[in-house]
Amino acid sequence: MEESSKEFCFQNEAYSNEFSVQLNTLRKSGVFCDVVLISSDGVEFPVHRAALAAGCIYFKVLFNINMVEKQQTKVHLKTISSSALRKVLEYIYTGSLRVNNDSVSELLLASSMFLMFELTEYCWDIFVETLDLNNCISRKILADSISSASIAKTVTSFVLKNFVNLDSKSLTRCPVSILREVLSCEELVVDSEVEVLGILLKWFVSCSFGFKQEDEMLNEDSKVSKLCKELLSLVRFKFVALDRKELTVFLQSFSLSKHSWLRDAVLERFETKSGSTEARLSYKEVDVVVVAGGQGEFSVSNQVYVYVPSRDQWVRISSMHHPRKRLV
After folding, report:
1. 296 Cβ contact list (under 8 Å, min separation 6)
2. Tell me, what's the pLDDT at 219?
3. How far is CA 254 from each of CA 167, 168, 275, rounded to the nearest angstrom?
4. 232: buried, middle or exposed (CB in 10 Å: 19+, 13-18, 0-12)?
5. Nearest CA to 256 among 182, 203, 205?
6. What is the pTM (predicted TM-score) of this model?
7. pLDDT tens for each residue of 190-208
8. How confident is the model at residue 90 (pLDDT cuts 50, 70, 90)?
9. Phi–psi pair at 291, nearest 5 degrees
10. Which of 61, 92, 107, 118 has the smallest number of CB atoms closer than 10 Å to its CB?
């Protein structure tokens, strides 16, 4: 009876990695490439159709289905930058790539377009982990447009918690739609409504710096000025804890001498207590310690301060009508 033959399996564990390295080297050298990808900024990348089809479903469909690109030797990718495309190709050919704070946003756009789901998920993790004051506005714009609801909510939460700390440059880049969303939100984190007013005034002043010619200066009838008045309606003046004199001093700190119409508009709304009568969540029903009045070295005070234990912070609120040095 004939004995059955034995089979032996030889597996070179380094083969797969070496194959990828060599294939990527051929790509970079332009050897055996049969199609050229062209980025949005005009950079050409010679590649292998078979490698792209094997590593990315987008290209598999593009080169298989009866589309124009199937026959073309050059494919224009009009929304993908050269830096993003270079990294995506590196990933397709080698299975790895480096992502940093500067490249993650454009990689998200590219990986989403190319239906590279695992890479997209990884980039979203980096996207959220590296959120900061300098990039949160641009990242909110991107997250609102292409992310899942949970990612968009996470980014929005970061913006609401940190919006009051944005510098003038970041505020200038903030679209009006986001500014309107933030100022109208119950969950905007501020110590008092004075900070909300300050955000709006800082935004306006930041915008006005872009007008250098005298005839371009923002006046009461300009588009931005009218928008600023509209946004003032989102400030809850009932909770602006200043008297008129204190508010006037506060307004002076924003250099509004050339925009008296804005100062007058703020004071008018302050007098009528315009805006929502509901307190924002960040300063609503908070356990505090109140310190009112007291005997100073030369006079009795009418000032009132509250201590917020949850934030370890003192906040000044509206003064009393009359000075007081003892309980009555």
Report:
1. none
2. 58
3. 14, 12, 22
4. buried
5. 205
6. 0.75
7. 988 999 999 999 988 887 6
8. very high
9. -120, 120
10. 118
Q: How far apart are CA 283 and CA 188, in angstroms?
A: 10
- Residue 197's nearest CA partner among 246, 151, 137 is 246
- Reference 164, options 137, 185, 188, 138; nearest CA is 188
Least confident of 56-65, 237-246, 283-292, 299-308: 283-292
Name the residue ranges covered by the structural domains of the chain. Answer: 15-101, 190-275, 284-317
Angle between helical axes of 176-183 and 149-162 (0-180°, round to 10): 70
Buried b (16+ CB within 10 A) or exposed e, 147-183: beeebbebbbebbbeebbebeeebbbebeeebbebbb
Q: What is the 3-state secondary structure (H, E, C) of the chain?
A: CCCCCCCCCCCCCCHHHHHHHHHHHHHHHCCCCCEEEECCCCCEEEECHHHHHHHCHHHHHHHHCCCHHHHCCEEECCCCCHHHHHHHHHHHHHCCCCCCCCCHHHHHHHHHHCCCHHHHHHHHHHHHHCCCCCCHHHHHHHHHHHCCHHHHHHHHHHHHHHHHHCCHHHHHCCCHHHHHHHHCCCCCCCCCHHHHHHHHHHHHHHHHCCCCCHHHCCCCCCHHHHHHHHHHCCCCHHHCCCCHHHHHHHHHCCCCCCCHHHHHHHHHHHHHCCCCCCCCHHHCCCCCEEEEEEECCCCEEEEEEEEECCCCEEEEECCCCCCCCCCC
Domain spanning 15-101 has what CATH number? 3.30.710.10
Q: Could you identify the residue written with the tokens 């919006």? A: 163
